[in-house]
Amino acid sequence: MTEPEIKTKTIEEFFANNNLQTVSIPILQPSEPFLDMAGEDLRRRIFMTENENGDSLCLRPEFTIPVCIKHIKTGATTPRRYAYIGEVFRQSRSGENSFYQAGIEDLGDVDEATADSRCLYDALSLLKHISGNPAYTVLLGDQNVFASVLQELGIVPTWQKRLLRSFGNARQLRDLLHILAEPKSEQSLPADLMKLVEAQDEAALTNYIEGEMLDAGISPSAGRSPTEIARRLLEKQLLSSVRLTKPVLEALEEFLSIRLALDEAEEALFEFGKKHELVSDHFLMPFKARNRAFSNRGIALESLQYDAAFGRPLDYYTGFVFEIRRDSDVMIGGGRYNRLMTMLGADRPIPAVGFSVWLDRLANGKANGIGVESREGKSL
Q: Residue 87 forms beta bridges with which residues?
């Protein structure tokens, strides 16, 4: 979109009618929290600069992280629901470098099923409020269910963590499962070093690496520390030493292939657990509670699609995730991110869930109009 102004009145009315606290987030933000949370791959997509003190800054690439940081810094009580609307800046695959978003962040409600259902209900209601009744599909996934399946199948913790990091990225996940099925040692190390790695002796390995760095005239404080290098070597060795049995690999592939209407998902997951003799169906309890909460809000479960392989490859997502799509375009994306608040510096865990609306995509689709005006005030 070329220099549009999103007409905010309709959206702000929705926020006010739902007792939401609209927050103002500065366009210029510290870049470190975004890079720490989303990874270095984000660096090439955001617009960075420095202040006079040399601090790394960027144009606001999204709202969730700065809204959460503001909540932490102000010491606000919870539960609390924030709303926002504005422009964000990052390069997209289509070549655009800025777009408009509105959204809601719901922080601190310990009744996660209720908060999750409210999140989806608000997303659907806001979509209807600003676009009438466009045709759309709703896709749901659950990071927690996948994590529970990995644990119940006996996957070693190191591999659990790595698989969870790739959950939602089909290619990465497929590649990792292939490695697990046919592991190969990736490390070619000197004999003395390999002996320490194979012994999984972190302290001795750290001392060895530090000594080698000093002998080579490299400061141990330059770049990655000896401890970080040692832990990475140990992790790689452990990962390469694990091989999935055929039944476990087949169970994982079967789980990831589950895709059906949400009203059928509970039974399908229960039958999956029964077939593969999982220790318990404890992981289904939050899933069932959330479905009941959806129904209580009048959300028809049969209208929602559950995909066991759908997730977000970010460390801070912990449970329910969803997208509202029109054709192949994502109009709204959201989910639960319970880890994010403590990762950003909160002194205690704070449950959190939220969503963002891609306003430009709705406007470009001309779904009954979203209230986009040119600077001359003419409807586009």
A: 100
